[in-house]
Write a structure and sequence with these properties.
Blueprint (H helix, E strand, L loop, with lengths): L23 H7 L4 H13 L8 H17 L4 E8 L2 E10 L4 E11 L12 H14 L3 E2 L1 E8 L7 H11 L5 E8 L12 E6 L8 H18 L3 E6 L5 H6 L4 E6 L18 H19 L1 E2 L2 E8 L2 E2 L6 E2 L3 E8 L5 E11 L5 E4 L2 E4 L6 E6 L5 E2 L7 E2 L5 E9 L2 E4 L3 E3 L13 E3 L6 E5 L6 E7 L4 E7 L3 E5 L6 E9 L4 E8 L2
Parallel strand pairs: 3-5, 3-6, 6-9, 7-8, 11-15
Antiparallel strand pairs: 1-2, 2-5, 4-10, 7-9, 12-13, 14-15, 16-17, 17-20, 18-19, 18-21, 21-22, 21-23, 24-25, 25-28, 26-27, 26-29, 29-30
Helix pairs in contact: 1-8, 2-4, 2-8, 4-8, 6-8
The structure holds zinc ion (ZN).
Zinc ion binds next to loops.
């Protein structure tokens, strides 16, 4: 591409343009944008010589580009041949599938054919930049699909891009989000190369121009966020985005601000360029590609569970709080990494009885409610602390709540020392061991409340009695030790242990 630039805007304020903000993940990828890789790519591109269509040099460059993508791990590589003026050449198309919108494409393109010289600037610079973007994004998930396209035949009149639009874009009704063209961004040796031209569509058809202006503003913002370059906006002209533009697609592009006097001559070589500038343009292009394709690192999830949590993939069960990673495969076949910030609430409802007071073991729970096991686990009004001293003899438990999790302790029998215990002779319990029936003879005491509990304090059965003799059916109780608790109407209490033996 060779042309005069008409500057249509002044320099823009950076970092705030278009409301875009710095994405730390994009920044971490751009930080790996490698100067040595760019330099090596430029040197190799130059070494092939003059890459005019029909030459061995362009065939060698074509094979080199394919080999580079293969070395990066790409497998969806298409060498799409076409013929004009009696020569056959090829566009190289590399597809990276999007995770959310696999059928909508961000095209990042630049031509690799040259004219009269090795074309290290026009367009080894764009070629080197696109290769490095592709290297860095190989393992980065993007919502949109990306096609990296290295067009041929550009210098002979946009032959490759026109062929691609005619034979792929139009027949397949290809859904293109944006075409991002990078052509001649090498800078000029000896000049201060600190500005990049962002190109927008100002030609016909007109209906896609506003969208191009929006996306070019986004490109401007990306330059400010991910490189140290200044920007200016100009119009798109005479490069591979034009056949797309004429087809109604939304385009944008990069072109150097200091225009090289060497394009399309044998002096278009690295020595006349500014490779540090190419590196900065590449960083901006990498950030913009991630922005357009909506690259993402991982999805963060806040989760809370009682006792344990099964990961979304089903592959893990976690039983303690922490930050975990899980990987799920999306419909597009992308491995989507999830970061799970997990809170596990474990309720410890153990208690200790000391004298007449019950203490909880876990004093860090959210809330406590003490209950009367002998009264259907009814809450005891005002008893919500980490310890409990009952005012009457009986069986008591505590309901412990942490987060959404709750558990109830075992019942603990508390016998208050200021209440008289009846001598055993007064109330007789038999037989002992018992198997199916338990008989109680209570003499003059004819009105009382009784409870049978196991050794852990769990209440098995309970009832009221209004005569001196009764028989309790214990046929459903298992063999073991049990307590019979009797509370008389006057508050006096009696307790004995008995054995069930089946
Ligand atoms: Zn060019």
């Amino acid at each position: 591409m060779l042309r005069s630039i008409l500057l249509v805007t002044s320099f823009l304020a950076l970092f705030t343009a278009n409301g875009q903000t710095y994405d730390p993940f994009f920044g971490s990828v751009v930080a790996n944008y490698n100067y040595d890789s760019i330099l090596a790519n430029l040197n190799q591109f130059e070494a092939f010589g003059v890459k005019e269509v029909g030459t061995t040099a362009i065939s060698n460059a074509q094979n080199w580009i394919v080999d580079k993508y293969t070395s990066y791990g790409y497998t969806n590589i298409t060498v799409d041949s076409f013929t004009y003026f009696g020569n056959t050449t090829a566009n190289i198309i590399i597809e990276k599938q999007g995770c959310q919108y696999p059928n909508t494409y961000v095209i990042v393109d630049g031509h690799y054919d040259t004219k009269n010289g090795p074309g290290t600037n026009d367009n080894g610079s764009g070629t080197a930049i696109i290769l490095e973007i592709a290297r860095l994004l190989k393992e980065v998930d993007t919502k949109y699909s990306i096609r990296f396209i290295h067009f041929s035949g550009e210098e002979d009149g946009l032959k490759g891009s026109q062929d691609y639009v005619n034979t792929v874009v139009i027949p397949q009704s290809m859904d293109i989000k944006v075409v991002f063209n990078i052509d001649e961004v090498g800078g000029v040796d000896g000049m201060i190369n600190n500005t990049i031209v962002c190109e927008r569509d100002e030609g016909t058809p007109l209906f896609n121009n506003a969208q191009s202006a929006v996306i070019t503003d986004e490109l401007v913002a990306c330059v400010g966020l991910y490189s140290n370059l200044n920007t200016t906006i100009s119009f798109a002209y005479a490069s591979d985005y034009m056949p797309f533009e004429e087809n109604g697609e939304i385009i944008t592009g990069f072109y150097e601000y200091n225009e090289s006097p060497y394009a399309h001559t044998s002096s278009d070589i690295l020595a006349n360029m500014d490779p540090a500038y190419v590196h900065e343009v590449g960083k901006a292009a990498c950030g913009a590609t991630m922005h357009f394709a909506e690259a993402y690192d991982m999805t963060s999830i806040l989760a809370e569970a009682c006792d344990s949590y099964i990961s979304p993939s089903g592959n893990y069960t976690w039983t303690s709080s922490g930050v975990y990673n899980d990987t799920v495969t999306t419909i597009a076949g992308c491995d989507s990494i999830l970061e799970i910030d997990l809170t596990i609430n474990t309720v410890d409802a153990s208690v200790t009885l000391i004298d007449s007071t019950i203490f909880v073991s876990n004093t860090n729970a959210d809330s406590y409610q003490w209950v009367d096991c002998d009264n259907g686990y009814a809450p005891i009004s005002g008893a919500t602390g980490t310890q409990f001293t009952p005012t009457y003899t009986g069986n008591f438990a505590v309901i412990v709540t942490t987060g959404s999790c709750t558990d109830t302790s075992a019942c603990n029998y508390v016998q208050l020392s200021n209440i008289n215990t009846l001598p055993e002779e007064v109330i007789q319990v038999y037989p002992n061991p018992a198997s199916n029936e338990l008989h109680i003879f209570s003499g003059n005491y004819t009105e009382y409340h009784w409870t049978i509990s196991d050794v852990s304090g769990k209440v098995i059965s309970t009832g009221e009695q209004f005569s001196s003799e009764q028989t309790i059916n214990i046929s459903r109780m298992r063999s073991g030790f049990y307590y019979l608790n009797i509370r008389l109407v006057n508050g006096q209490h009696y307790r004995t242990r008995f054995v069930v033996n089946k």
